[in-house]
Amino acid sequence: DSxxxxxxxxxxxxxxxxxxxxxxxxxxxxxxxxxxxxxDQGLQFLIQYYNGEERAKGNILERFSAQQFPDxxxxxxxxxxxxxxxxxxxxxxxxxxxxxxVYNEQFFGPGTRLTVL
Amino acid sequence: EDKVVQSPLSLVVHEGxxxxxxxxxxxxxxxxxxxxxxxxxxxxxxxxxTSSGIEKKSGRLxxxxxxxxxxxxxxxxxxxxxxxxxxxxxxxxxxxLVFGKGxxxxxxx
Lengths: 117, 109
Description:
Chain A has no helices and eleven strands. Chain A is mainly β. At the A-B interface, strand 5 and strand 10 of A face strand 5, strand 9 and strand 10 of B.
């Protein structure tokens, strides 16, 4: 158990809908990362937050957005869902986001499996 | 475009064998390379490498980075069935956190 929690575990929804995925980082970790893992694309970095502020962006679609709250939990919002958005979404956290812009060890949550029908 | 290529994509070995997994990269302004192990669930951290030629070791696993030739290898000696997993290589540079597709290792008893 990494100490990172994600809810829900599974989510099934229809195309065009909007969903929110939630992540609570390990105690003491200030940085949260979101990833998408699909069979054809592998694991892809979406976005990083550090202490409430956006720190780095990866391949995140405009239909997706995220935020980190004062209690450090984070939410990933996915809207206008398409079939291709079906994937496993991971959240990870780390103590120090970038020491000299070098990424350190991250602890991954169990993931939320999203199925869009 | 920054990219990370892992080889082989898949590997099947017998218990006790030694394996070498490869990761080559092309990234702008390289900062670090990380290895993760992913079994059925979330990835777990193995190593972080920033300097060439310095071997990192943890039990039967070891890894080294060559920044001149732009690659890293992950070695696993005396493999066990518990080593069966997908091994992911991740590189950070100007583009944060570029993942390879992974190498799927299957260890047969």
